[in-house]
Write a structure and sequence with these properties.
alpha/beta, three-stranded antiparallel β-sheet
Length: about 325
C-alpha cells in the first residue's frame, strides 16, 4: 500500500530537497487464522514495492522467513504477525534482549547553519540528545557547528555524515578542527571514499572522534580486520544485520542500526537493537520527519532514548482509517 504522509510543519517554510522522504510503502499480511501484521519501508519515487513483491509468499508459513533478508516492509509485517501469533514482542524471535531502551537520533536534510540551529533547538525540545545530518557542499560544517552550539544543551552530540566522498588530505584538517574546538561533535560517518582502506585507518589513528562506516564494500568482517572504523552501521536485511551485529558483539565493536521510515520501521529497529550485544550507539529512523503516521501511537523519546516495544509483534497498532487517508495523499512534487 503506497502512502504519502505529510511532512513536519517546519518544512513548509524551508527550502530543502525532500526527494523521497514522503514515499513509503506499507505491507499488510493476513494469515489463514485471521491475524494481520503490518510493516513499513521508505522507498524511492517510482521504486516502491508492489504486489509482485509479496506474491511468492502467499500460502507460505511466515516462520519460514525468520532472519531472512526480504524487503524491510515485508520483514516487519512477518515479524509483526509472528509475534502476534505467539503473543510475544518481535525481539523474542531475534535473540536475547540485553537492553530495555535504545538511544535514538533526530535527523534532517542538509541545512544552512541558521536552519540547523533551529533543528537542534527543535530536537532538544523533543527529548533528543543526538542529531544526524549529511554535510553538503552548499554549507560550511564549521559554521553549522558553531550555530548548533549556541542552542544545544549540555551533553548534546552531533553526528555528521560526510557522504563518503572526501580524500584524507581534505578530511584530516576538518576533523582535527572539530575535535579540538567543538566538543559538541560526537560522531563522523563515512569521512572518506569507502574503498580507501588505508585512508580510513590513518584517519582513525589520528582522531579520538568515533568513526562510523556505513555500507562495507568488503562485506563487513574484512573492514573489522583492517580496523577502519569504531562503529559499523547496519541497515540491510534483518538476517544480515543480526548476523553482523552478533559477530561484532563477539569482537566488542559498537554497532548502530539505521532503518528509515515511520513508526513501524523504528519499532523494528528497536527490536533488532534490543538483542545486539554491542548496540550501545543510537538508531536513526526518520520518524521525526512526519506530521502524521498510520499508527495509533508514536514512539516516545525520553532523555535521548526510546523504549523497546513490549507488545505482541512490533508492538504498535495500525489505524486503518489513517492508513486509507494517508494513502490518498498526493506525493510531493520536486
Amino acid at each position: 500500500i503506497p502512502i504519502f504522509p505529510r511532512l513536519a510543519k517546519r518544512y513548509e517554510s524551508r527550502k530543502v530537497s525532500l526527494h523521497g522522504i514522503d514515499h513509503r510503502a506499507i505491507v499488510k499480511v493476513q494469515t489463514d487464522n485471521g491475524l494481520v501484521g503490518y510493516g513499513d519501508n521508505r522507498g524511492r519515487p517510482g521504486r516502491l514495492p508492489d504486489q509482485s513483491t509479496v506474491e511468492p509468499f502467499i500460502g507460505r508459513d511466515p516462520f519460514d522467513f525468520i532472519n531472512s533478508n526480504l524487503d524491510m516492509g515485508l520483514s516487519g509485517a512477518l515479524y509483526d504477525v509472528m509475534g502476534k501469533y505467539l503473543e510475544v514482542p518481535a525481539y523474542k524471535l531475534m535473540g536475547q534482549k540485553v537492553r530495555d531502551a535504545v538511544s535514538v537520533a533526530a535527523w534532517t536534510r542538509p541545512a544552512s547553519p541558521e536552519e540547523f540551529r533551529d533543528e537542534i533547538r527543535r530536537a532538544a525540545g523533543e527529548g533528543y540528545t543526538i542529531f544526524k545530518i549529511h554535510t553538503c557542499a552548499h554549507h560550511d560544517v564549521i559554521e553549522q557547528t558553531r550555530l548548533a552550539e549556541e542552542v544545544a544543551p549540555e551533553g548534546f552530540k552531533l553526528h555528521y555524515d560526510f557522504n563518503g566522498n572526501r580524500s584524507l588530505g581534505a578530511v584530516l584538517p576538518l576533523v582535527s578542527e572539530l575535535e579540538k574546538n567543538h566538543p559538541i561533535v560526537g560522531y563522523i560517518e563515512d569521512p572518506l571514499v569507502r574503498t580507501d582502506i588505508d585512508g580510513w585507518r590513518r584517519l582513525r589513528e589520528q582522531t579520538r572522534l568515533p568513526i562510523i562506516m556505513h555500507v562495507t564494500p568488503l562485506g563487513g568482517m574484512q573492514e573489522v580486520i583492517h580496523g577502519v572504523a569504531d562503529i559499523y552501521m547496519l541497515g540491510g536485511g534483518v538476517g544480515d544485520s543480526l548476523a553482523t551485529g552478533f559477530a561484532l558483539g563477539r569482537a566488542n565493536i559498537q554497532t548502530l542500526v539505521q532503518l528509515t521510515g515511520g513508526t513501524l520501521t523504528k519499532a523494528l529497529a528497536l527490536h533488532m537493537a534490543a538483542v545486539m550485544p554491542t548496540h550501545t550507539a543510537h538508531t536513526i529512523n526518520l520518524d521525526d520527519q512526519y506530521e502524521e503516521d498510520i499508527t495509533t501511537e508514536r514512539i516516545p523519546v525520553i532523555e535521548g532514548a526510546s523504549p523497546v516495544p513490549e507488545g505482541p509483534g512490533l508492538g504498535y497498532e495500525v489505524d486503518e482509517e489513517a492508513l486509507a487517508r494517508i494513502a490518498a495523499n498526493t506525493p510531493i512534487e520536486i
